[in-house]
Amino acid sequence: MSSQRRQPGRPEATSHGEIEQAAFALFAERGFDGTTLDDIADAVGVGRRTLFRYFRSKNDIPWGQFDLTLDAFRRLLASMPEDLPLHESVHRGVMDFNDFPDDAMPAHRERMRLILTNPALQAHSMLRYAEWRDVIAEHVAWRTRGSVTDLLPRTVGHVSLALALTAYDVWLADEHAVLLEVLEESMGTLRSYLGPS
Q1: Cβ atoms within 10 Å of 70's Cβ, excluding its own
Q2: Other C-beta atoms within 10 Å of 68: how many?
Q3: N or C terminus: which one in the chain shows less Cβ crowding within 10 Å?
Q4: pLDDT in tens, 103-117
Q5: In angstroms, rounded to a whole number, what is the distance separating the alpha carbons of residues 163 and 169?
Q6: Closest CA to 90 of 126, 121, 128, 133
Q7: What's the mean pLDDT in 25-46?
Q8: How many Cβ atoms from other residues are within 10 Å of residue 101's Cβ?
Q9: Which of 12, 45, 43 is CA-nearest to residue 25?
Q10: Annotated DNA-binding ranges (predicted)?
Q11: What does the pLDDT read at residue 197?
Q12: Domain ranges in the chain?
């Protein structure tokens, strides 16, 4: 996609989706490092300042509306029946969180490949990973009537993230792999860790 200066009378983008679509097209053409915010603004037809109303930085664009995503994750975990064993509620929550329609998978694969393989995004990703872990820690703390700073909630958050990232590594390396199948196998180890001894 070639960047173009905004034409007179051209309406400004009004959604995160439009900006993400333009950005990912540029990332595919020029690479993440070779794409600037000005390039993205030009491609969408808005000013650079307008982009900052939607995303705080270029590094935030691959993560989409992550705050809303985390809110949905919290609701997923909160909806788990209270009589469900803890390991099952975490397992199901992570599985449901990563359950995407088939037609969304190509874009999700592209997004995750960029997030997980681009060195420029690694430091930023650590912040997002911490927020994701915190959602699980909050759930575990609530279920155990403890604190998010207790060892178990923090450990479950870290272990869940490690298992999910491992599944994504396998999925991205094999175009025939099915994400939920790989994730089910990986997350299954959490059952052994948290399940009844």
Answers
A1: 16
A2: 10
A3: C
A4: 999 999 999 999 999
A5: 10
A6: 133
A7: 94
A8: 7
A9: 43
A10: 36-55
A11: 52
A12: 16-56, 65-194
